[in-house]
Amino acid sequence: MPRRFPFPLVRLCRVLPPVFWLLACACATADRPLESASLRFADQSFRIVRIDLRRHALKLYWRDPDSGQPFGDIETLRRWGEARGRKLLFAANAGIYDRANAPLGLHVEDGRTLVPLNLVHGNPAAGNFSLRPNGVFAIDLEGHALVRTSEAFKAAHRPVRWASQSGPMLVIDGQINPAFADDSGSLKWRSGVCAPSPTQVVFAVSETPVNFHTFARFFRDALHCRDALYLDGSISQFYIDGVGYAGAPAFMVKPYAGIFAVFAS
């Protein structure tokens, strides 16, 4: 015998205000897995994750707000969210950090600047952050993403809600960083980020070791990004719900000073 509803669904649809359906749709969208794919480019494999900022909230995490201790790794952040009824959809290492496991450059969480912009010109031989130019990935107060060189970011005086400084820049205004050699033998797992549009963010991590030039060309020629920022090297790893981990093997991973993440609502 067919089930009869005490209140016909058609009548229910007429009674409920339009805002109810908008909220229901937004909740369903926020819980939906992110767009992810494994792509081939220049005989190398890359895992990408595309985030629509109109549908998902991308945030940056360094320390547990309750204990004050650094999360350090993706699994700790995942369990923290799970304990609060929040499912982790995506996580990735943020920018370069120092020997004390603190961000080496700008780090902004929910509008609070925890580490200021770093414009010190170090020795390029000392590390990737000193390869010029380095840059900033940020999300402003309107929810728009941007990637800029550190100097351009400072000059813009643009208030942001989330930001991580790293380096070097991979692509600057459509041009590959001139510091990169296409025949470089420095092969590492590498991760980076770009914003093809103000509401679209793409993270990428190599699934095999690559050099800077190939990684930069992937962002420019395959992902069509005019500006792209390098995040980190051999410790780089992503977590994608329904896929698992991508990037460097587990034994290469060390504690992170910042983690980008998207949780389901």
Q: How is this structure best described in words?
A:
With 265 residues, the chain is of the alpha+beta class. The protein has one domain (34-263). Helix content is 18%, strand content 34%. The strands form three sheets. The protein has a seven-stranded antiparallel β-sheet with strand order 1-2-13-12-14-10-11, covered by helices on one side. A five-stranded antiparallel β-sheet has the order 3-17-4-15-16, covered by helices on one side. A hairpin with a 2-residue loop joins strand 12 and strand 13. Mean pLDDT is 88; it is low at 1-16 and 18-29.
Number of helices, counting only DSSP H or I runs of 4 residues or more: 5
* Low-pLDDT regions: 1-16, 18-29
Mean pLDDT: 88
Helical content, roughly?
Answer: 10-25%
- The H-and-E topology, N to C, reads as HHEEEHEEEEEHEEEEEHEEEE
* Spatial sequence of strands, sheet with the most strands: 1-2-13-12-14-10-11
Number of domains: 1
Q: Could you tell me how far the N terminus lies from the C terminus, measured between alpha carbons in angstroms? A: 37 Å
Gyration radius, rounded: 20 Å
Structural class call reads alpha+beta
Shape: globular
Approximate strand percentage = 25-35%
Largest beta-sheet details: 7 strands, antiparallel
Number-wise, the strands total: 17
Keywords: Signal
Domain Phosphodiester glycosidase: 89-237
InterPro entries: NAGPA
Signal peptide: 1-30
